[in-house]
Amino acid sequence: MQLVKKSATALILFLFTTVLTVPSKAQIGNVERILQASKADANKLVQAYLKPFGSGFGAGLNTGWTNTAQPHKTLGFDLTISAGLAIVPDSDLEFDIADLKLDQLQVQGENTVTPTINGAGRAGPTMEASATVNDTERTLFNFEMPAGTGFRYTPAPMIKASVGLIKNTEVMFRYTPELNINDFGTFQLLGGGVKHDIKQWLPGSGLIPVDISVMFGYTSMDVNSPFEIRPDDVMEDPGNTENSLPASTWQGQGIEMQTDAWTINALVGKTLPVISVYGGVGYEASTFSITTPGSYPTVVPTNPQPAPGSNEERFVVEAIEGPVDVEIKGENGFRALAGFRLRFTIFHISGSYTLSKYPSYNVGFGISFR
């Protein structure tokens, strides 16, 4: 008898609850049956469910790099606190489970469409897994696909500092120190970029009435969240389940999420004493990865047949290592952008809009000089 044992359901559970920042024991109990699903199926479900979150967060991180087309003068600087907000398109608010070609799991009923994390706040269809146990086909478990948040936006807050160097070149930095957010875990962001005036290299540059520059920016964000799944959470029949693994086996469980986003743009704009406006075209890309260090419990039937005169199957707790390893390529690409900055002495307010598959807004407030 071959039963698929190693799965990533504990991590699906965590992603479906922690990413929504509403973990609860009730949700754990409702979703953990999927622990008997195959690892391949679990990873496919994680990737499809979180796809808009990965793409949207990458798009949000690629905003807010600049608020003018003109680089700072030498030793000029600005410090800006901003927030990006990407909009998830209609096409990514749900997905068809049938397209995933799952191995172990099957959809019950005719409806195979379910919400993504940014989709409708309703549960998806019921999933069921079965296996041959002692030459008998039997249902192992079933569960409902999780609901979406009903919130089709992905925020990305950040702090940016810029300083002007020689030859009309500006270097930019992004940094958010490691923050411990209650039970959610830690969050940290780091990035860098450069903006360079190319008008100075064009013939007759003094006659060109606008600023022309190119810029590049890269941002990396890390989220590390600990959590806890114990054998008692996954046992369906504790009285017939043997657990010989020590409690220390389950130490170090967690989820690590990393987003890498970069963009390159050509900008044209005009800077006046109070207002600056700019527009441009460019390209953006992002990658959202999820890994899960630690060991996680799963319950499987044992090989021996039931004792004579008994119909009860015996189970045993086993450990699976790092069950989820998913990488989501952001659905980004070519984009157009426009923005403005209003400056009052050393203070400024800025805003921008980026037109792409995941359109995004960015608003900021800060100080600037030169």
List the helices and strands and how they pair.
Layout: H1 9-18, H2 25-31, H3 39-61, E1 77-87, E2 94-96, E3 105-108, E4 113-115, E5 126-133, E6 136-144, E7 153-165, E8 169-181, E9 185-197, E10 211-226, H4 231-234, E11 241-242, E12 254-271, E13 275-291, E14 295-301, E15 315-321, E16 325-329, E17 334-344, E18 347-355, E19 360-369
Parallel strand pairs: 11-15
Antiparallel strand pairs: 1-7, 1-19, 2-4, 3-5, 5-6, 7-8, 8-9, 9-10, 10-12, 12-13, 13-16, 13-17, 14-15, 17-18, 18-19
Order of helices and strands: HHHEEEEEEEEEEHEEEEEEEEE
Largest sheet: 10 strands, antiparallel, barrel
Low-pLDDT stretches = 1-35
Could you state the oligomeric state of the chains shown? single chain
Which strand order do you get reading across the main beta sheet? 1-7-8-9-10-12-13-17-18-19
| Average pLDDT taken over every residue | 82
Structure annotation, total helices? 4
Distance N to C terminus? 74 Å
Structural class designation: mainly beta
Please give the radius of gyration in angstroms.
Answer: 26 Å
Strand elements, count:
19
Helix-residue proportion: 10-25%
Identify the overall geometry: elongated
Beta-strand content: over 45%
